[in-house]
């Protein structure tokens, strides 16, 4: 856990992995000055605001989540985060992967047998927020696996029953979407490579300007920002495998440890060192 005192609020972060639940990531944090840059997670972000208020961009618009509200960010959805109150905000969040929610939603009509889609970025539901808080508390306890799963899965199932929808996707991709998908795949596979926009454009037979416009339209990020996210995903994988912070930073294309540290905290909310400590 890290702490930083700031204008009456004590900044704290506690990041943990719940091993018996497949390494489910959970963050408990209190922030004053923290700002999250545009980023995404491979899993969902499901959180409860315990104090203050958070402002964030998500789902094509700006949102404010006040005390007691629930934050819902879909997997791979671009979002940001900052304080919406003078005294910052405190919240708890979990990041379940789509496979877990797809298994839980198998019998729910709202999800049509697949991973759920949450159209609302902020919901106000006192009862469900309380149920999620109980689940968070259970995840941080030494209770047995069956009890943890019961509390967590009940809360998540209730959440999906009330607020998830079936996401309608086009049957076919446009040519531009297919080309963007190829560029994304390249950046995901080789995030450490110092590739130019011109080289990426030539790979898919587009002009650099057109690729830039289409890539941002499809993904919500320009290619260089997406590359940073791909590097962070790879770095987290290396850290989980036991590689050192500096080694992981350099292997993923970051200039140095400071460069890595800055981007990691602005996307994950904790430092690489804190993340490593949560794995122990």
Automatic annotation (TrEMBL):
PROSITE patterns: HTH_ARAC_FAMILY_1, HTH_ARAC_FAMILY_2. Keywords: Activator, DNA-binding, Transcription, Transcription regulation. SMART domains: HTH_ARAC (SM00342). The keyword Cell membrane does not apply. It comes from the Bacteria. GO terms for molecular function: DNA-binding transcription factor activity; sequence-specific DNA binding. The keyword Cell inner membrane does not apply. Signal peptide: none annotated. Residues 181-278 form the HTH araC/xylS-type domain. InterPro entries: AraC-bd, AraC_XylS_family_regulators, Homeodomain-like_sf, HTH-like, HTH_AraC, HTH_AraC-typ_CS. PANTHER family: HTH-TYPE TRANSCRIPTIONAL ACTIVATOR RHAS-RELATED, TRANSCRIPTIONAL REGULATORY PROTEIN. This is Regulatory protein of adaptative response. It comes from Serratia rubidaea. The lineage of its organism: Bacteria, Pseudomonadati, Pseudomonadota, Gammaproteobacteria, Enterobacterales. The gene is ada.
